[in-house]
Design a protein that fits this description.
alpha+beta, Protein Transport Mog1p, Chain A, Methylamine Dehydrogenase, Chain H, elongated
Length: 641
Amino acid sequence: IELVAAIAGLSQAQISADGGDTGAALQTIESVQAQLDTIVSACGRATIPERIYISPDKSFAFAYPESWSRLSPTAGVYALSNDQRVLSAAIDSNLGDPLAPGSVIVVVGILDIEDYLSSGGSFDEFVAEFQDEGINSTLDFVGATRTPEFGRYEMRATNIQSDSLEGVIYYLNPAADGKVIVVIGLTPRGEYEPFTPEVNAVAASVRYGADVAEAQAAQASPATPTIVEQPQPPGRPLADITYASAISLTDFNADINVRSAMLSPDGSMIGWHTPQSDGLICVYTFADGQTVCSTVPEIFRGAPQYIIWSPDSRYITFSQDFILRFEEADIWLYEVETRRFINATDDQIDRWSPVGGTRDDNVEGPLWIDLAFTWGPDLNLYFYRTELPDPSTMDLYTVGIYRQNPATGETVLIRDITEDFERFSIYQNRELEFNGSIAVSPDAQQIAMIVLEHDLDSPKSGIWVMPANGSEAPQQLVAASDLTAGLVTGALQGYKFAVPMGLAWSPDGRSLYTLGTTVYTGTLDGGAVIYQIDTGTAEITPLNDFSAYDRETLYSADDNGHVPAFYVPRGAVMSSDGTTPLTLHAFENQGGLSALRVVDGALQPELLVAIDDFRPIPASVSSAARDGKLLLWGYLFLPGE
């Protein structure tokens, strides 16, 4: 409509000019030009997907293109770029080093007028003083300072350039607390103009103080639906799959780190993280046999505890290791196609000690410790968070279950569970079975979680379920002390039960599966049992049963040469169609893959593949893909055609 009106205005200008009224014609043309500028600006903004960032204290917000990367702030300065690789180097050089061709960097900073004008002063006096001091020794201010008329706040702008860079600096006056917000956009020389809409959009989106409420409202009403209407396609039926053999992942590809390797849900890739000294996230693609690795941002510090794929195979998700190393734990996303890293739960704190608080200057908190996470079928992240309002003490805290839409960054508290369990009682061990310690039901209506309090004998230790909308408090489905059936006779002396290690839902939501082991309660030979739990009645059914054996007969061959320990699970996944637990098991150099089923009330395990040259592989994670591929504790199972 606006464009049609502008065209009509040009026609009117032509009529005025033809009639000799050039003044009216010029006036009409100027008005049309203003209309066109508004239209072009709006179109430009409409083509830039936005992620909204809101500071933890809700005092500052801005938006930036969804495909860009962002560093955690240093002393109130934020750095953004379309190329993650240039971010750290640009900040370390104080914007002095050249940028890679085709890249743009935007720096957003909150500055105090009194830091530049000791006795205080006006906004324009600050701008003049800032330009006198300069940004660094290489960047010069070019041309006159102008007054742009876009964005919420009074603004000044000046072009800047060096021998290798060019761009613009914007000064924004929020008229609050003696603050000035500076936005700097830079590209290689000769490349700034195409990036003007993106830089301008960032500057125009800045909100400070009370105005942050607008950004919160926009974040609460994302353009991308929270619930995905079309879930991922169903997995290949187990009945249609034949597994002819298994191959050690080290034999398949020696470059893959077997300790962390996970299949993508669509079966097209294997992702893993390298040891801490390397700091890489790597992806192998089956179609072309190629491996691509990306360096984890330096601020991550350390190696991921484990990785999990998103259901659409778009993201690899990982976090720091809080349980063993007390690392400040954020949840990170690695977008495979663009190779960019996103700190999805950035609390602005990168270094923290449980005895010394935050080690980051000018950061007061709160501190978010995100211990366990999973993906739902709705393509949302679900995670368990302990929040410390004051990072210098662990005495004050809240605990909650959260959901995040990664497409928008929208994060909501599903339910506060501070009073339900002791803190840090929901976490993920390095041994990752099924979906881990949190699992979302196939219809995204329920969340199941493993609760293990410091005292494992606590009556609260066990498996709990709650509505995914948080409308009701978690309810205990089974206590950990209920997981005793099927274990080796005598294994419970002193430790009483099997510890649940992971959760998986059946496709119809009527059952939960967990692997219970006595390893974490004091013994290596108590066996491991897959339990099926009816979510309606809480009835527990062991799908493998070693109760007929004691610790000696478990490892002794019977008259048929059968050694019962052969079937003790080492790892477990659900089949590609989600209907059947599959286990990797072995004794000495013989291994196998079995399906565990209950038919007419009777346990009927089925050996799918025998491994005649089995050798232990230092892996502790398992995964399954919808196309039938399986990866269990370092062994890759490929389905036949």
